[in-house]
Amino acid sequence: MDKSSSNNLHVVLLSSPEAGHVVPILALARRLAELQGVRSTVLLVTTGVHSASNVVSPPRENGLVEIVRLPPVDISSLVNPSTKVATLLYLTMQEAVPLVRSAIAAMDRRPDAFVVVYFGTDSLRVAAELNIPKYVLFTSTAWFLALSLYCPILDEKIKGQYIDKPGQLDIPGCKPVRPEDVVDMMLDRDDQQYHEYLRMGKEITALSDGILLNTCGALEAETLQAFVKNEAMKSVLKSPVYPIGPLTRPVERTGLKSELMDWLNKQPNQSVLFVSFGSGGVLSAEQTTELAWGLEQSRQRFLWVVRPPKKGHVNDVFFPDNIKGAEDDYLPRGFSIRTKKIGLLVPTWGQQVEILAHPSIGGFMSHCGWNSALESIVSGVPLIAWPLYAEQRMNASYLAEELQVAVRPEVLPTKKMVGRDEIEKMVRTLMEHKDGQAMRDRANQLRTGALNWIKEGGSSHQLMSQILTDIRPKRVIATKIE
């Protein structure tokens, strides 16, 4: 760690163990170092399962970024096999608060500001004890943020389950949400995760000095305007919103394995469909089989990151033994041989950013996690939207209907198995039809807008500079935790 520049600001960033949170936290640390010369200490909450190991490595920005893995948090006495993933994250981050306090107390230099991911709002009280500026990094869309902030109001207005409500859920100044697209936390109003979600919708703005948002005006101008101009939305927003995204991983072309790079280099430009459902995206055996048949029937080139079908739980941050099965159990017999000339199977994990940036990639079949969506957009690659959990249904809707860079199944994959014929149709639409080319052109337009937003002198850079300008005068009143 380079400690020679004592005048540099020191920011502590807190991430949950979820890879979807680790990625933007590290990207923010990298951005602070590259553009602002800020020293960052990333506190990574762990559970003893290293599911994020593929994305966690210290960014090489002049020694200004340090990663500190906190001791594993044990919540086994607080949960049972039916506990939802969001509740697991909420409880993990709550139990980690003493570890966060101890880690900061042990630092050789007190932090000048504190940033937590959305699930870590309980730790904002540690920053309050230090009397330092505190922010929440919201790692998803402005639309999801708007829903999260407004949900306590919906809770008072609407009776019964949201998914049973006819019509749409209105959010002031924003695109309404279809009941079937609501986030997982809103599916059951009697479940603990819903009550935690309501609490955090209030705390994210009440306890923070600002919300850092992983999006930009090129992608969500209407919603961002609602935060500023819509009176009903402003009434639930007690702190400013800073759209500083997109925060994405850098492309390191040397990271691709030689055999994978060799295969990609042999394919024509924009001819390959990249299929990957993220670190937590695991399909059933039956759906995996249908997907394989659909890819084969499409006769399109594909690169498929294949994960064994799920055993029970969707998230392996807390349940590492949730996948099983030999390849013959879930891929059609002879599939690998028949598709050898047009397809490549990659087991378990692939270097997503590097793959998306390769010129041979023309489409991305994705679970629509917001990190993956942003990485696809900044690579100019349109998508087949295949949402699985969390807020991914909202993301898929936004990508297809508002940004117009995605095609999606007629019925949500979480409700009904998507058949091989529909999969074939979506793949062909994206890869060889004029509608797919229009989406590709649109993705490239958004790519240009997003890159202009994050470049030095762009709006994202200016907003980050504004935040740091606000932090610097407050350094003198910061006190160390005892």
From TrEMBL:
Top-rank EC class of the record's enzyme: transferase
InterPro entries according to UniProt: UDP_glucos_trans, UDP_glycos_trans_CS
Signal peptide bounds: none
GO molecular function, one term: UDP-glycosyltransferase activity
EC number: 2.4.1.-
CDD domains: GT1_Gtf-like
Keywords, in A-Z order: Glycosyltransferase, Transferase
Gene3D superfamilies reported in the protein's UniProt record: Glycogen Phosphorylase B
Family (UniProt): Belongs to the UDP-glycosyltransferase family.
PANTHER family: GLYCOSYLTRANSFERASE-RELATED, UDP-GLYCOSYLTRANSFERASE 72E1
Name assigned to this protein: Glycosyltransferase
